[in-house]
Amino acid sequence: MAGKPKLHYFNGRGRMESIRWLLAAAGVEFEEELFETREEFEKLIQGGVLMYEQVPVVEVDGMNLIETRAILRYLAAKYNLYGRNLQEQAWIDMYVEGLKDLSDMIMFLPLSLPGEKEMNLEYILERATTRFFPVYEKALRDHGQDFLVGDRLRWADVQLLEVIFMAEECKPSVLAGFPLLQEFKARISYIPTICKFLQPGSQRKPPLDEGSIETVKNIFKFERGMFLKNMGTIVAEY
Amino acid sequence: MMAAKPKLHYPNGRGRMESVRWVLAAAGVEFDEEFLETKEQLQKLQDGNHLLFQQVPMVEIDGMKLVQTRSILHYIAEKHRLFGKDLKERTLIDMYVEGTLDLLELIIMHPFLKPDDQQKEVVNMAQKAIIRYFPVFEKVLRDHGQRFLVGNQLSLADIILLQTILALEEKIPNILSAFPHLQEFTVKISNIPTIKKFLEPGSKKKPPPDDIYVRTVYNIFMP
């Protein structure tokens, strides 16, 4: 049968990180082919595996899966991390989409225009603590269960944990007003597969630093003001 | 007990809700709409905890208040068998839909760009459509010779692609000139009875965004 899933991306988090988290949480070993230059990326494009000439792409089960959400949904379904019925699936979808709005903002923060990073960071933290985290805190409080949906680990829990860590990297005390999320973080972090992923030596990637920001910009030819452009799309979720 | 009709909460225009209208219509599902016109109405929905993330679109359906466009589309598609027959087909549909939604996003945002940027953006949309997205779907249709994109039956992918093609044609009338299979696709899918009905005057399909719509949106959503 098929070998391990193979991930093609640059050597950093970006949009592939959620996929790494999900595979790791499911206890699935995976390989990575990480490109470092524009030339290597173009070679991948020419190889014809990228439907829309974009990454992430994950080779799995004889398919070249593209589009982050499509990849995540396939893996979640395959590894029993999705809903058991239509209603559970709807809740997981909603929770995950909300988290994506927040994680996209955090992901694009390093691409802020000079002089705007402080302001953007403040905006992210305000959104995190007033719009997003309250939703998940309430979900946990309302049903009193260990997980967001139903009684076992799902994709939404893995995604929430990932975004909690990302938000804490922006501000360590960001969970101060959210006792249930603090408990959730501790509890989910201790699940063996996830615990393993959180340890040094795993395939989890570090946040972008000055050097890797330049690499990313060169590979993907990002324009200036990428943060604002992305923000425009998110803010305009109407 | 007969289920209530789904109820859509959104301004009276296309925006992010239009895809939902398309899919419900294609599935032959009647729905009601409550149009947002003022900031106060939005505030009321938010204060009443009807919007999970304080945002619209929101669709009341089957006892839930669904938000997030993709979640809504998936729920409806899954419920009305517009999402393929197995995981592989669903994933293929998913990949096609995600690409198409990326293209549709440019159309949705267009009226809210500065006037100077709008013309440039039409060029950008046309390029993305012709170079990145249409060739993919043209090839899919050419390779399998079937009427629908996936699994020889109507799916979310066909509906969203048709929506996007028609929206682009409003701005760039000859956008399909190099894509004979997509031209045929457009005609065939448009002729499916439920979709044909949606394309006729008097349906719930919304007209292209105009200044009034843009102003309404700003009034409701700008702080």
Automatic annotation (TrEMBL), chain A:
CDD domains listed in its UniProt record: GST_C_Alpha
Domain of life: Eukaryota
SUPFAM superfamilies per the UniProt record, alphabetical: GST C-terminal domain-like, Thioredoxin-like
Keywords attached to this entry: Transferase
GST C-terminal domain mapped to chain residues: 85-208
GO molecular function: glutathione transferase activity
UniProt keyword annotation of NADP present: no
GST N-terminal domain boundaries: 3-83
EC number: 2.5.1.18
GO biological process: glutathione metabolic process; xenobiotic metabolic process
Gene3D superfamilies, A to Z: 1.20.1050.10, Glutaredoxin
Family: Belongs to the GST superfamily. Alpha family.
Protein's name according to its UniProt entry: glutathione transferase
From TrEMBL, chain B:
Keyword set, alphabetical order: Transferase
A single Gene Ontology CC term: cytosol
Keyword Iron: no
Stretches of the chain forming a coiled coil according to its record: none
GST C-terminal domain segment(s): 86-209
Record-linked Pfam families: GST_C_3, GST_N
A single GO molecular function term of this UniProt record: protein homodimerization activity
Keyword Signal: no
Entry protein name: glutathione transferase
Domain GST N-terminal: 4-84
Similarity comment: family membership: Belongs to the GST superfamily. Alpha family.
InterPro entries for this protein: Glutathione-S-Trfase_C-like, Glutathione-S-Trfase_C_sf, Glutathione_S-Trfase, Glutathione_S-Trfase_N, GST_alpha, GST_C, GST_superfamily, Thioredoxin-like_sf
First-level EC class: transferase
EC number: 2.5.1.18
GO biological process, one term: glutathione metabolic process
Gene3D superfamilies assigned to the protein according to its UniProt record, in alphabetical order: 1.20.1050.10, Glutaredoxin
